[in-house]
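Model it.
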Amino acid sequence: MPISWDDEVEDVLTGDLTAALGYRTPAGGAVVMAVAPIGLHDRGQGRVGFTTSLGFSKKLDRIAKDPRVALAYHAREHGSSSSRAYVLAQGRAHVVEQPSPARKQEVTEHATRYLGAAPRGRFWDFWLREYGDVRVPVDVTVERIVVWPVLQCAGPPTVHGAALPDAPGPQRPPRKGTAPRVDVERAARRLGRTSHTLVGYCGGDGFPMILPIGLVGSGPEGLRVAGAAPLPPGGRRAGLLGHAYRAKLAGLSTRQYTGWLDGDLYAPHTETGYSAPPNKRLLLLLNGGLAKRGVRQARRAGKL
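Modeled.
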């Protein structure tokens, strides 16, 4: 039977413009990235979702191998919900690689409603061809929804569906060590320019947990972080996301890290990210180019 949720959760799932996706890595860590849910969910089926491009195959490969994911609805800017609740949905993802015409139309209508209509014309039709033609929905069959009453995740949460597991035990350190592998001070400066910072790790049952945190310091050993919800004791592989956005997801800025979390200390090991100007057409130029490159790489690898 699909799990159910209350009207406040329904309002958040309908209204939020962005969400944080957490998925697992082969080594038992988690990656956290910002996605556009554009209101894709089905209350009767107990399902939430988001959209992505088949050109971004690394993420989809990871989800195909281990479908346990989480979506954290953590930001209210430029959306329609007035709730202050933090909603974390955990479940198993399925990439709809060949959506029906009706499903494609549904995604297009939702994207237009939340993100605005895409420009048309000979150039734009060519430039956004891969971005639109291979953009697919990802359905997540929800097994648990965890709701904190405020966005900072203070206080005890309400759980819909499966009970929360015990805190996970510590993981074995990576062979290359746990110390930072990127410039910590630079990472702190870049994260300080974003509006939302979240950390993700694998919980006791393997599903990603995503929690909001704040930076409280930095040094050679890593970033000092703190949040209202307690972080698990012991060291573990974890992902870190910092991002900011404007209306219709223009003016995006995102910083994404993987690394080692030990209590309140995060040592970043890898770093990716970008900043886009607050201009929708320039953002579409960037997204169209990324999708074209991703599709070419996926075709060469035999994935399309």
